Amino acid sequence: MAAALIISSVAVTAQTKQWSLTDCIGYALEKNIQVRKAGVSVSLGELSLQQSKDNMLPSLSASLSENLGWRLETGASDETSLVGSSRTNASLSSGLTLFNGFQLRNQVRQAGLDLKSLQYSADQTTESVSLNIMSAYLQVLYSEEQVINARNQAEATREELALAAERLTLGAIANSDYLQVKTQLASEESSLATAVNNLKMAKLNLMQLMEYPVDESFEIARPDIDAFISTAPAADAVSVYQEALEVKPQIKIASINRENASIDLEMARAGFLPSLSLSAGMSTGFTEAAEMGAQLKNGFSPSVGLSASVPIFRNNQNKTAVSRAKYGITTAELDELNTRNQLRKEVEQAVLDAESALISYQAALNRYDSSVETYNLSEEKFKLGAMNSVDFLIQKTNLTAAESNLLQAKYELVYSHKIIDFYRGVALTF
User: Fold this and answer.
1) Which residues of the chain have pLDDT under 50?
2) Which residues lie closer than 8 Å to 181 by C-beta, 6 or more apart?
3) Fold of the domain built from segment(s) 21-56+100-273+312-424
4) What is the pLDDT of residue 283?
């Protein structure tokens, strides 16, 4: 029977792709709408940065106009008539801002910071999607083990029911003992059906998070969870927090916002400074096509100009702008501090959760080992007829509870370690 199961498993594996956690996350990041929108926002930020750089270049424009006019003329016979005329004008003009309180330069700096902020925001979206996929992936693994355990329990009880039936036929046990085992089997088969349904729901949730069309043949690869648990290092909240400060995008964004607020202050102060701009142009025109060349040459009119603007009084608008910018810096600094504090609290909670999960796992493992020993002894007694079905099923129920508790504790421990990896910036993989 075991060999047949192995051959069947190999056949399914050969036909069906088994998705690793890395595969699931990679697919989700390609298909997720929010991730793709974040990429579009980054592209728009790149355009804004380029435009702010181009604003420092001189402008150049050309114009061409055609003007038609009529006038009354009196001829030799005192007759009046309308005589039409036309004039064609062409001009070329250029302008360049020489100084405006470094506004253009600061706009380039801000556009660069805005682009970085959009990139880090996209990283946040990527992290959120990856974390959701990881959680759903572990839920599928957990549900698969629940199905395996429930199936094993039902199979063992089915064998026990067959043994009880033989004893009932021989008159070695009462009918009530036989019915106790039969009821237990019905209960475990119901639990198996529930576990199978939970597994289907877990897979459905994972596929939907991945934006993957529902596929009955969808299977995930099973990593060595026990090996991962045995090699996962203990975490220190201080060191994890220091690593998180270096890699988490929300910290980068808060720092950028503070720097942006400082530039806002520089730009507000620029309102008190004069501005200087340079302009140049040329124009010409002609009225008669026959003499166009000479008229264009004679009508050629170049020009150059330099203009300055000195702010004297603008209803205290500049003063208010400076004050607002200073408050903006204070707000940005407080936001950055709050972001750091929030991250520290999250890391501290994650490390504490990992420590608690390890304690719970070790306790669950001890309870399970003890329950296995007790169950094995009870099973021997039951098979020899030295224990009735009621007492034996109590021990089996205790083992089932211990097994379920261990399974839950195991995956809570794995999840807690993965959360710490998340804060450390370690790839979410096995």
Assistant:
1) 1-14
2) 157, 160, 161, 164, 389, 393
3) Outer membrane efflux proteins (OEP) (1.20.1600)
4) 87
